[in-house]
Amino acid sequence: MPLEGMNRGEYLNKKFGGKEQAIKIYKNIEDEGRLVNIHFQFKKIQIIPNSFLSHKLLAFAFSKKKQNQVLESIFFNYFIEGKNIGNLETIIEIVKQTNLYEDGIEEYLLSDKDNENLLNESKQANAIRISGVPCFIFNKEFVINGAQPTEVYKNIINSLKANE
């Protein structure tokens, strides 16, 4: 993903092979979200971000024991507000929303500190076929990316139980 992110329309065509397929997939996600009172606003998203800064913020938040709070804020800002979570200004807003702002945070986010570890984690994720969120790994052998019908998960779990 380029540092500045990618136009959403171009990305959807590339990832899903066309707008119609993407609409079906996102409608399923929207429908499932509404069942648990999450109202995704995909139409607000103009840019598919390079999420490296978000991951770097999560690494920082982990050291402060606020990773879950920051993750929720990142998701809200992206999936509900449609903000570019690859943008430094948006990341700083999230830092402030989650009361993590401190002297040096901008310098840390723009520095090389922890970059090697984060890039290694990304390579490892690619090696085990993680290509999106959500991602579930069952028994260290089945990797399921993206929103899937409940039946997919039931079938995998039943298959694993049968092979015990």
Provide a descriptive summary of the structure in words:
The protein has 164 residues and is mainly alpha-helical. The protein has 3 domains: 1-48, no CATH class; 50-127; 129-164, no CATH class. Helix content is 57%, strand content 7%. It has a two-stranded antiparallel sheet with strand order 1-2. A two-stranded antiparallel sheet has the order 3-4. Helix 3 (52-63) packs antiparallel against helix 4 and helix 4 crosses helix 5. It is globular. The mean pLDDT is 89.
Q: Determine the mean pLDDT.
A: 89
The total tally of domains equals 3
The level of helicity is: 55-70%
Main beta-sheet annotation: 2 strands, antiparallel
Placed side by side, the strands forming the largest sheet appear as 1-2
Distinct helical segment count: 8
Which outline best applies? globular
Question: In what range is the share of β-strand residues?
Answer: 5-15%
Low-confidence runs = none
Oligomeric description of these chains: single chain
Task: Note the gap between the termini.
Answer: 40 Å
Query: Radius of gyration from the CA trace?
Result: 17 Å
